[in-house]
Amino acid sequence: TYRAGGAAEWLAAPRTLEDIRRSLRWAQERQLPVTMIGAGSNLLVSDQGVPGLVITTRHWRQTEFDPATGQVTAAAGEPLPTLAWKAAKRGWRGLEWAVGIPGTVGGAVFMNAGAHGIETADILVRAWLLETDLSSASPQRLIPVGPEQLGYRYRTSILQTHPRPVLRATFQLEPGHDPKAVMADTQADLEQRRATQPYDKPSCGSVFRNPKPHSAGWLIEQSGLKGYRIGNAQVADRHANFIINCGGAKAADILRLIRHVQQRVADQWACELEAEVRLLGQFSDAEFPPSARIG
Q1: Which of 100, 155, 229, 290 has a 20 to 30 Å separation from 89 between CA atoms?
Q2: Based on C-alpha coordinates, what's the Rg of the chain?
Q3: Distance of CA 89 to CAs 83, 99, 116, 118, 171, Å?
Q4: How many CB atoms lie within 10 A of CB 148?
């Protein structure tokens, strides 16, 4: 979603579980590294691209609503806004907050996505992870796990340090409400995000996790960084926790701006901002020289 960075050496866009398994076997036969992503809405990809095979699950979309339990099961590639609207039209509450998040179900489970004081961990019943032993000749299995096994904290999970692809998830919702009322609340959440966040330019959403007691956006704004640019990457005027691509920005420029913001806030507030956006690919010394790095 940053519209920046290089290409994948190889790319697969599977639509079924068997497609995913075939893609993994193809990479295994050629001894290629594999990277699995969702829609890429929380990624900054290196200008040098990504070696090996990148598998995006964004085209694997399937949902099942179970009125008996109030649970919805969705494939990893199902967009969160689409799922939120599907639930709202049925009069099921619990996903209104997700309507403005430009990610997928798999990404939400991986990142513990959230908004308006609610997060994925609050409604997740179970997720199915893909067995990642590519040396095995047997078909890749799906392993169910509950939220307690995912080590959820604010905008993070154990999957970020011990990666395993998320391929499906079940959420607990509240059926039986007036669809018009749920749709109205969902629309209100969407309009609030559009009014306060810069949707008109490419970005990754919020760049930094919010420290306590102040938000990352407040700290950045109070540091005088709104509108600050490096190349065509800019701290957004509308919301300081967004870094936007003003047109043709390089991933290296975006990363330099991220590090500059971290350094300024650390110097002024003695607070270390932790990046929420994840880096994908190699960032060379030419793109991001050691002299500009922090830590």
Answers
A1: 155
A2: 20
A3: 10, 13, 20, 20, 16
A4: 9
pLDDT digits (tens, 9 = 90+) for 127-145: 999 986 655 555 578 999 9
Given the residues 23, 157, 206, 223, select the one marked as catalytic. 206
Q: In whole angstroms, what is the distance from residue 223 CA to residue 219 CA?
A: 6
In the predicted structure, residue 227 carries a pLDDT above the cut 80: yes
Looking from the CA of 15 toward its CB, the CA atoms found within 13 Å total 0
Token pair, residue 13, equals: 């866009």
CA distance 200 to 194: 9
Please confirm, yes or no, whether 155 is among the known catalytic residues: yes
H-helix or E-strand containing 106? helix 105-111
CB 83 within 8 A of CB 61: no
Cα–chain center distance at 119: 13
Annotated catalytic residue 29: no
Residue 223 is a catalytic residue: no
CA-to-CA dists, residue 161 to 56, 65, 171, angstroms: 20, 32, 23
Does the model's pTM come out above 0.70?
yes
Of the candidates 78, 96, 119, 276, the residue annotated as catalytic is: 276
Residue 142, SS3? Answer: strand
Query: What pLDDT, in 10s, does the model give residues 178-206?
Result: 999 999 999 999 999 889 899 889 999 99
The active-site residue out of 58, 155, 168, 256 is 155
